[in-house]
Amino acid sequence: MSTGMTGRERGDAAPMGSERHMRADAVRNRERILEAATTLMAVHGIDVPIDEIAELAQVGVGTVYRNYPTKGALFEALLLARITPLVAAARTAAAADEPGEAFVAFVRNLCEEFADFKALADAMVASGVDLSAAKNQISGELIDAVSRLLERAQGSGRIRPDVTIGDVSAMMAGLSHADPMLMDPSQRRRCVALVCDSLLVGARSVLPQCELSRSSPGAVRRGSRSS
Amino acid sequence: MSTGMTGRERGDAAPMGSERHMRADAVRNRERILEAATTLMAVHGIDVPIDEIAELAQVGVGTVYRNYPTKGALFEALLLARITPLVAAARTAAAADEPGEAFVAFVRNLCEEFADFKALADAMVASGVDLSAAKNQISGELIDAVSRLLERAQGSGRIRPDVTIGDVSAMMAGLSHADPMLMDPSQRRRCVALVCDSLLVGARSVLPQCELSRSSPGAVRRGSRSS
DNA sequence: TACTATACGGAACGATGGTTCCGTTTGTCA
DNA sequence: TGACAAACGGAACCATCGTTCCGTATAGTA
User: Fold this and answer.
1) Which residues are within 8 A (CB) of B187 and not within 5 positions of it... i.e. 6 or more apart?
2) CB–CB of B225 and A128 under 8 A?
3) pLDDT given at position A174
4) Which fold has domain A25-69?
């Protein structure tokens, strides 16, 4: 972390100018880069070296930098693509008939997204640290949308009235911070269920089964993986 | 992360051999190093450069390395010092008259520890990644102790019977991951309270007040801090 | 097919941070 | 007080990673 990425003033993370004639190979390469970056950032978060992205895309580093002037720009481009639909989803949920249920479902979804795309979680975790204007705006929109959703859900009486958007953000950040060892998908779902139970009024759901070995009490299986 | 610290076979992170004659200045310096490392790792976690530790200790880097053959060794030495009392606390709690309450109190305590000493949280988060034998053992002991505590608490009927030690570990890891921006102390306490509510049977506690500005709904204050 | 703007690749640069090495200093003991 | 092992400091080394630069290749066009 603390890559010290300085956001450029220009709002466009994508290639500059209107799409004048772009050479065919350039278009192809840009797609490849985006694809490779998505694949790698999904798994490793923002920590993937640019070299690896370039290698997977079968492209030189220079080509990556021609499309995205900085690693942060590439990161943001992917991020925006992920967050935008979430904002829409939150708005839809806020308009649902059962805002309480919709809220919980949305939170569940959000956590799945975090798990599927680690870079998103990294971004969430880094919230509050200097973000570019574009990212600040979109994440602000997300928070706004979730706030409205939360309000309506509380209005319906299904969600604890004393829960704040700050609580939700913090919980999401915590849940998103999925160490793959402690937090395999099934374990994560259990935790999400627990957290949701704590948000709901008078709820006590049946926790999803955890696939992980139960084994003798007090022994958490621990793999050994060196980077 | 992924510093690639290779654990040495020797179990002692502290200076080698039995305490033969150590020169007075050497003793003094070792204490200084430990002190400086504690101070810095409490705030910055494992990411502090050795140089900074050395500087604060008013010592050369070489001196740090003479005492702790690797950064990981120093890290572990501090960690063990922190975890050991936690194990004892868990055992005491397990023997308490009200194991349910004791469990919750212990969890609360654990979270405070995480917040006070970021390196501990880093270690928790890195669980499952290659640890040295010494660390594996002590953290295994901690899990054992918490498991027993959990079992007794569940036996008393205060804690949900479907909660597992895996759930607790994962929740702690999430909670420990305190981004100072999203998770100022008061916000953290609220989250801990929420999580504890989700663990307890039929509980719904009053959430501690959050000091953070409430401001207009849907706007989370966001500071701008560059590393 | 020849020409040129566009795009490419990857070596090289600079910053950061862990670790080692070695010439110098200093505590201790006789 | 003199000698020497122990300990010191910090420059230097190496690896990683973001970013830049420039000589080369090529898509598009006439």
Assistant:
1) A166, A167, A170, B210, B212
2) yes
3) 85
4) Arc Repressor Mutant, subunit A (1.10.10)
User: Contact, B78 vs B34, CB < 8 A?
Assistant: yes
What is the domain partition of chain A in residue ranges? 25-69, 75-199
Cβ neighbours of A147 in B, within 8 Å: 217-219
End-to-end CA distance of chain B: 17
Q: Is the pLDDT of residue A135 over 80?
A: no
Q: Are A219 and B144 within 8 A, CB to CB?
A: yes
Domain B79-199 in the same topology as domain B25-69: no
| B102 Cβ neighbours under 8 A, 6+ residues apart | B93, B94, B96, B149, B153
Q: For the domain bounded by B79-199, which CATH number is listed?
A: 1.10.357.10
What is d(CA A123, CA A119) in angstroms, rounded to the nearest whole number? Answer: 6
Token look-up 């009490």 returns A217
Radius of gyration of chain A (CA): 20
What CATH number was assigned to the domain covering residues A75-199? 1.10.357.10
Determine, for residues B170 and A187 on separate chains, whether the beta-carbon distance falls below 8 Å.
yes
* Interacting residues of B217 by C-beta distance below 8 A, sequence separation 6+: A147, A151, A165
SS (H, E, C) chain A: CCCCCCCCCCCCCCCCCCCCCCCHHHHHHHHHHHHHHHHHHHHHHHHCCHHHHHHHCCCCHHHHHHHCCCHHHHHHHHHHHHHHHHHHHHHHHHCCCCHHHHHHHHHHHHHHHHHHCHHHHHHHHCCCECCCHHHHHHHHHHHHHHHHHHHHHHHCCCECCCCCHHHHHHHHHHHHCCCCCCCCHHHHHHHHHHHHHHHECCCCCCCCCCCCCCCCCCCCCCCCECC
Token code pair at residue A70: 């900085």
**Strand D atom within 7 Å of B37 CB:** no
Pick A7 or B196 by higher pLDDT. B196
- Tens-digit pLDDT profile for residues A150-197: 999 999 999 999 999 989 988 888 888 766 666 778 888 899 999 998
Rg (Cα) of chain B, in Å, rounded? 20
Strand C nucleotides below 7 A of a protein CB? 6-12, 16-22, 26-29
Query: Would you say the C-beta of A28 is within 7 Å of strand D?
Result: no
